[in-house]
Write a structure and sequence with these properties.
This protein has one helix and five strands. The protein is of the alpha+beta class. The chain has one domain.
Length: 76
């Protein structure tokens, strides 16, 4: 169970962790609130600490810009 969760624009940051031989590794899973069955984004940043609320919001803003407001299909 994880106590860190952030929400922004229909996205939920719900990280998990894996215990490694050299400590704990954070897996930064981001879900759409409408589909909690599988993550829509995975943040590949720092593995030793959780994302702050600001980092999470900045990441969502970036991903929306890169994926045409969250749509993963190309509009050309």
């Amino acid at each position: 169970m994880n106590l860190i969760k952030h929400e922004y624009k229909g996205y939920i940051y719900d990280p998990d962790f894996t215990i490694m031989s050299d400590g704990v590794e954070i897996n930064h899973y981001i879900f759409k609130k409408s589909d909690l069955s599988k993550p829509c984004y995975f943040y590949y940043g720092v593995k030793k600490d959780y994302m702050s609320k600001k980092q999470f919001i900045d990441y969502i803003i970036l991903m929306e810009k890169l994926t045409y407001n969250g749509l993963t299909t190309f509009r050309g």
